[in-house]
Structure formats: structure tokens, C-alpha cells
Amino acid sequence: MPSQNPQFDVIIAGCGPTGAMLAAELRLHDVRVLVLEQDIEPVSYVRIVGLHVRSLELMAMRGLLDRLLEHGRRRPAAGFFAAIDKPAPTLDSAHAYLLGIPQPVVVRLLEEHAIGLGAQIRRGCALTGFEQDDDGVTVEVADGQQLRTRYLVGCDGGRSTVRKLLGVGFPGEPARTETLMGEMEVGVPPEEIAAKTADIRRTDKRFSIQAFGEGIHRIVIPAATVSDRAEPPTLEDFRRQLRTLAGTDFGVHSPRWLSRFGDATRLAERYRVGRVLLAGDAAHIHPPTGGQGLNLGVQDAVNLGWKLAAQVHGWAPDQLLDTYQGERQPVAADVLDNTRAQMELHSAEPGARAVRRLLTDLMDFDEVNRYLIEKITAIDIRYDFGEGLDLVGRRLRDVGVRQGRLYDLLRHGRGLLLDRTGRLTARGWSDRVDHLADPTAELDVPGLLLRPDGHVAWVGDDQRELDDRLARWFGRPTG
After folding, report:
1. Does residue 393 form part of some domain?
2. Structural domain contains residue 392
3. Which PANTHER family does this entry report, sorted A to Z (predicted)?
4. Which residue in 52, 187, 275, 350 has the most C-beta neighbors within 10 A?
């Protein structure tokens, strides 16, 4: 008979970026969180990833951006879509750039953030099973220990144990092609690399050799066959493929990390079954074209965190937790589609090359270029709240307010009423929603209500309408 007094409110399986971010989001609301990670040590290889505009905004909202900037390198927000080289468009954001940063640094900083807020993280502790009932979830770990929690979230990657045990379907397409990716040193002059790369990329856009400084180059090269992704490639695999495609292995040596990825594309049929939820790669996988994977998972975590906390603390409105799937699954489906399209545009087939040439010309139009970059960077997302101005459902950029910057007011993960009229109130929800009366705020609307994830829940100046939206997103008023 399971204990009716759970040890934890939420157990998270997996301490990658998604799991660590979710743990931190939950701790902002004093949720008792345990993260189980099967690996004893964090990933040792230094893989550079890109944080896109929307993820940078979220990091700014939680006070993490300055720490990340210390370890990353900014570059223009351009050239993401199918690696088509066009200038960066003008984007509606104070953080309109890409931040190249080592993935282990992202994970470490997010872990430190979560631990600093009070989350527990247990490494070398793999989830092996679970059973859920009306009151909670009993989780089994590899050493035979049983833990009791109110909710379980699988953030345990594309081969998610949680998803498989939950019996959630993961339909999509298996990998048809495979690509090798790694960072290593080379033994030939930059001029030779540039000439060979330019020649090959006339017909194969999946091939690239990019210098990262200090003698390190990132090499991306099509593999000969599709193999078991669980087995990492060897340096000899890279040498063999380089000789096949370029006629030389460029004297590659001293790899920092080596990996392979396919173009498998899958989306979980459900993000929630009872008290068990999925996030990040456990819910969706796709090729890394456009660099959206880590960003998509972190954004899942920020969407889910406050909703799950509301459920734990008992103030969640009906169906609030279900909006997590309702909002995030369509976003993932769109990412899967745009990565499918990008992979086709990388093909060496004549038809695909013709479409790529056409799209390259179309991207000379600023509207087209901006549309595609906004899609990749996730600042085009508008959740369907059913009604309202176009701003409703969208994230709000970091505008100036009397106290400085808007995002600085969102660090505690609460809602925010931004009121330029001085007549509005969120009094009955003051334990969940902050109120800033500021006629100087850089807005062209009289007032708006922000959810904890920075998306606009309401725009206007009518108190009765506002009360309705407050109740919809933040439950019944107190007092």
C-alpha cells in the first residue's frame, strides 16, 4: 500500500537542460523537487550549442542571462534556416542574437540555479519503473528504493524510460540519413579547408568545417550509412568519410567530442497521462538543423513549471495543466515540420537544390527572411487563447518600465499586471500576481496581464474582463 504522504511533490527523471530548468521553475513556487539522473558525472564532452532569442529572453526573465553571457559568444541571428546565408533581420527583442555556448556549461548553470533554489539532484540514480494511482506516483530506482511523489515528469531524452513505461506512442519517421558531428583539431592550413569546403558545399549542404578558435574546428559530414546511434563514432570514421568526400582527412586529430545524429522525427501522442508528464526530447525528437532542440525543451519547462506548481498548491483552475500539452505540442509539431523542410533543402537531389535556390532568392525579401528566423528562434509563437488582440497569446519583449526593465520583474515566476491606467487591480490574486501601475511603461495598450512564462493573457482596461482572465489563469481570488 503506497504511502499517502509523498516525500516529494514532483520527481523529474533526467537532469539535462529541460530537467534542470523545470526543477528551478518549480522551486520558484516552493515545490518539493527531486531530480533523478542516471549518469554519475555530467557529460564531459564540450559540445557547442546555440541559445536562440526566445531562450535568451527566458534566461533574462529568470536572472540567468548575465551568467550565460560570460561563457558564450554572440553572433548575429542569421543563417539558421537550412544554413541559407542571409543578413540578420530586425527582430522585436532586446536579445536579438544567437549565443554559442558549451552545452555542459548550460547544464551546470541550470543545475546550480535549481540547487540554489532548493532542488535535490541525485546522480547515478536511474528510474527503472513507476506506478501511479489517484493520490500520486510510486517511483522505483535502480538500487531497489521506492520513492513517493505527487507527480512525475520524464525529461529523460529521446529513448525516454518514462515515456515507454507510460505506454505513450511516439509516431513519426525513422532515420533515413545520418550525419557525423564533432569538434577536433586539424593539420592543414585554413586556406585548404576553405577551398575544399566551398567546393563540396556546392552540391552537399550537410558538409561543413567551421573554426572555433584555439585550433578547434567543428566538422559536420554525412555518414556512409545509418547505424546505431547508441554507439558513438570514432575518429577513424571521420577520417574515412572526409577522404571519401574531400579526398583528404585534413589531418584531423585530438577530438574534443564526437557524435552522430539521424533525421528521425517523432512526436509523443500525449504529453500527460494522469500524474505523469513528458517534456523535452522525451516528448519530441527531430534533426538538429536550425539548432532548436535544447531551446524547445527549455521552453517546455518554463511553460510547464508554473502550471504544475499551481496544481501542487491547489489553486490551479480547471484544465490549466492540460494547457501544457495544448500549447506545447503544436509548437513541437511546427518544429518537426520546419526541420523536415530544412533536411530536404540540404539534399543533393536536383529538385531539392532547385527549391533551395528559389527559397534563397525569396529570402532576399525582408518579410520572408524575418518570418523564417522568427520561426526558428521561437519568437513568432502565439498560443491560442481563443480571442483578443493579436498580442494576446504572444510573449512580450523586454520593455522599459519605471523600475528599469520588465523582465527583471519576472524573476520570481509570478504573474504580472502591468497597468498604465492606474485604475486596475489584481487584489484578490496578490499571492500569485504582482501589480505594477506605471503610466510610463513602453506599451501602446492601457494594461496587460502576463503569465509567469511572459506570455500575454489579457489586454485592455476593463476590470471585469481582467478579473475573468485572472480567474482563468490564476484560479479563484482569495479574501
Report:
1. no
2. no
3. BINDING MONOOXYGENASE, PUTATIVE (JCVI)-RELATED, TRK SYSTEM POTASSIUM UPTAKE PROTEIN
4. 52
